[in-house]
Amino acid sequence: MRKTNTLLLMLLFFAAGSFKSFSQTIPVGTPVLEDYYRRMQLLGRADSLLSFTIRPLTPEGLKNSDILIPNQVGDSSNWKALKPVSFFHKRGSIELLPVIWQQQYNSDHPYGWNDGSMIPARGYQTLISAGFFARLGPLSIQFRPEYLYAANGSFKSYGENRTDKDLFIYYYNYNLIDAPERFGDLPQRKFLWGQSSIRLNIGPASFGLSNENIWWGPGTRNSIMMSNNAAGFKHLTLNTTRPVLTKIGTFEAQLVGGRLEGTRYSPLPSRINSVGTDLFIPKNPDWRYLSALNISYHPKWVNGLFFGFTRSFITYHTTLNSISDYIPLFIPFQKVKINDGIGEMSDRDQRTSFYSRWVFEKARAEVYFEYGLNDNAYNLRDFVGSPAHARAYIFGLTKMIPLATRNQYFRLNVETTQTSQTVDYLVRDARSFYYHDIITQGYTNMGEGLGTGIGSGGNLQSLDISWVDGLKQVGLSLERYEHNMDLAREAGFVSLNGYSRSWVDFALAANGTWNYKNLLFNVKLQGVKSLNYQWVLKDYEPSKYYVPQNDVYNFHGELGVTYRF
Fold it and tell me: I need a surface site. Which of 99, 127, 264, 396 has the fewest CB within 10 A?
């Protein structure tokens, strides 16, 4: 309890200061702008003290009065902007937010992630958002609702022509997470709160109610703890809006208490085995409470170096009885220190991650990693002896290479994400990273993962090369996506003798962003080759790693337009 009070006092200390005019945020996943500002930091044109590990981004953090039309690429030929309208003797103002229209298409089966309120679906889907931002003194309101339409077409399911054993193992895994293969059999139409919030802003601190997506950690393609893979969720937030300077360096922090929703869909459309047994175990209909903390630290002695720590707990809201249940973030990490060595007794699902990001401004480069755990070690000896138990990790680097033409660069990024278990599972099975035996929706909101978009047990390696000039970017990306390896091992599709039958996607994409006057465009054209799609082993030959007859091809396309008033 003392530690909880200390954290609150620290955040209140951050809040001390004069009222300040706040502007709208750049929502997580905003096309073009998010990547632009991160590139600018590598080039020495954005605040070097900003970690980029707690998002959405704010004007205070970026030190830019108009984050929608960056200073470096301001164009006098832009169409006339609509200026904010002031009221109450300029103590308040109101302005229109950009209109964002994103479209996506998958020709054969669902592919893609980090798309917010969009769902994994075949066919066409679109997401439209717009709204306004208003402020009055320290109070701000950002109203940015979203409309989603998804055709949600049918596709070849894992459940087709499967043995009872295959179906049993699948449900044995996916009964522990709310991750339906398909969101029903009808088109989806939804109006959502989207990236909306109401906040009280004092100095570098902001407290409020929000539905915005959150991104925690240094990753660009994935995040272990928080990303925009799922739709935003309702939450109370107490966070810094810019780095807070102290004698030992700068700090950024966010404390969140939120409500997570589930779906009623079964993991597969087919629920009944050959003898009539219903394999689907319905989830607890109660909503889940999420308590989570992220603290980022930049030591004053090392330029560009950031360290961070995150922790999250999820429980059903009917089990909340005390303040320690709402803010359980200071429960000891080592199980030996809890309940005389018995360990955690409450029905809570918890995860922890540690991360670091190091920006080398002179080299125009950065290197970063995040290491997560979903099961705490019994004691320090246990962790040292088996650090790979229940772990997931992300590692990546980015390099900006100057070209002969002024302000033009090649950008190179490589990143790898690993969430499947290591061979440690043979000694002590930790289950898949985002599963849970009691909170059977797992680490999800509205049927999609809060963390990595590649799903529990998934692994990804990606390479991106592009030409960049301000907001403009044109390039190619290559990625290798290995689907739920934990399930594959358990079902016998992957063995230790080398005869693996993994479901692996190889994807090559041409992508680009462009700005013209007040418009921003983004496009992605991606071809996906799925080897052993859905782990189908038709015409199986032990001498071949992949079964040629099981290749499936998919086209994934994205097209977006943003208009900035």
Answer: 264
Q: Which residues pair with 542 in a beta bridge?
A: none
3-state percent helix, strand, coil for the chain, nearest multiple of 5: 15, 40, 45
Cα(481)–Cα(224) distance, rounded to whole angstroms? 16
Average pLDDT over residues 62-87: 78
327 Cβ neighbours under 8 A, 6+ residues apart: 4, 255, 257, 291
Q: Compute CA 199 distance to the chain's CA centroid, rounded to the nearest angstrom.
A: 23
Class of domain 2-563: mainly beta
Residue 459 neighbours by CB under 8 Å, 6+ apart = 416, 417, 418, 419, 420, 481, 482, 485
Listing DSSP states for 10-37 in one string gives HHHHHH-S--------B-TT-TTHHHHH
Predicted confidence at residue 544, as pLDDT, reads 60
Give the 3-state secondary structure of residue 79: coil
Segment 140-149 mean pLDDT: 97
Please check whether residue 26 is in contact with residue 564, taking contact to mean a CB–CB distance below 8 angstroms.
Answer: no
Whole-structure pTM value: 0.92
Q: What is the DSSP string of 390-405?
A: TEEEEEEEEEEEE-SS
Residue 12 φ/ψ, nearest 5 degrees: -65, -35
| DSSP secondary structure, 89-158, as one string | TTTEEEEEEEEEEEEEEESSS------TT--S-BEEEEEEEEEEEEEETTEEEEE--EEEEE--B----T
- Give the pLDDT confidence of 520-542 residue by residue, as tens digits: 999 999 999 998 899 887 666 66
CA angle 54–121–514, rounded 5-degree value: 55
- Percent of the chain whose predicted confidence (pLDDT) is above 90: 75
Domain boundaries, the chain: 2-563
- SS3 of 176-201: the string is CCCCCCCCCCCCEEEEECCCCEEEEE
Band the pLDDT of 460: cuts 50, 70, 90: very high
Residue 126 — φ and ψ, nearest 5°? -140, 150
Q: Rounded to an integer, what distance in angstroms lies between the CA atom of residue 516 and that of residue 519?
A: 5
